Amino acid sequence: MSERGRVMEDELLKKAKRRKIRTIAVLVIVALAATSAVFGLSIKSARAEKAKAAAAQESTETQAAADSGAAEKKSTSSKEKKDKAAVKKVDKLIAAIGDPDKVTLDSKDAIQKAKKAYDKLSKDQKEIVENKEVLTAALENYRKLVKEKKAEAAEKNSSSSSASTAAAKSVTISIECKDLANDMSRLKEPAKKKYIPSNGIILPVTKYQFKSGETVYDALKSVCRSHGIAYIKKDAGAYDGVYISSIGHLAEFDGGKNSGWLYYVNGVTPNYTCSKYKLKNGDVIKWHYTVNYTKE
């Protein structure tokens, strides 16, 4: 082969070699590009999956929070209803007590029921009781009454003990209007006829225990009060003391111009008012309605 032929062959070989290298390079680039694309897709897919998972997690947490909030709201609503029902019951029991300033010892049951129901309430429930001040005042006033009752009982026991130690002093007292009952024609006001017993006895002979220093008036006042007999006292004026103008709705002058009430002690009419005569053990006192005092 000539020199020129060899040169051409070398050139052709070189060109073929360069083409092969370029082809390989192109294939490598294509392969790299493909690999990069695949890798990029994988990353993108992974990111997408991660984002999707995060979104799902967030959605789950949001729903859980919403469910929890709804449950809590439902629970709170249920608790409020329960609280209101319990408080309403207590308010009703307190209202049954009435005016706390008018409680008596008979108010015990109503107060105890309200107090027991109130004590069962929770701290929050007690805060919304509307009339708890009524319960507080009622309790305070009731306790005062109980205390006073105990003190009264103690004093009574003490008095009874003292009385049993010392000799008991007593008198008898009676009230009658027999003179008028035997002659009703003297009665100036027919409407008062209903107050006059047919036998003329307004109060039969009654025993009265007295303390030193008590008077005929004290005895009359006590028995009238205990037997529901009305009486009217007046100032005796120049005679000093108390004058009795009416007993059992029968007043002076109802049986005539000289009619009225006189009192006797042991069968004698004292010459001073009933508030001045001091009782003595065994005295027999009689209040007599006279139709004519000038003949007494």
Automatic annotation (TrEMBL):
Span of domain Transcobalamin-like C-terminal: 213-290
InterPro entries reported for this sequence: Transcobalamin-like_C
Coiled-coil region: 111-159
Keyword Coiled coil: yes
Swiss-Prot/TrEMBL keywords: Coiled coil, Membrane, Transmembrane, Transmembrane helix
Entry keyword Methyltransferase: no
Transmembrane segments: 21-43
Biased composition (Basic and acidic residues): 70-82
Chain segments carrying region Disordered: 53-82
Biased composition (Low complexity): 53-69
Top-rank taxon, per record: Bacteria
Classification via Gene3D superfamilies: 2.170.130.30
Protein name per its UniProtKB record: DUF4430 domain-containing protein
Organism lineage: Bacteria, Bacillati, Bacillota, Clostridia, Peptostreptococcales
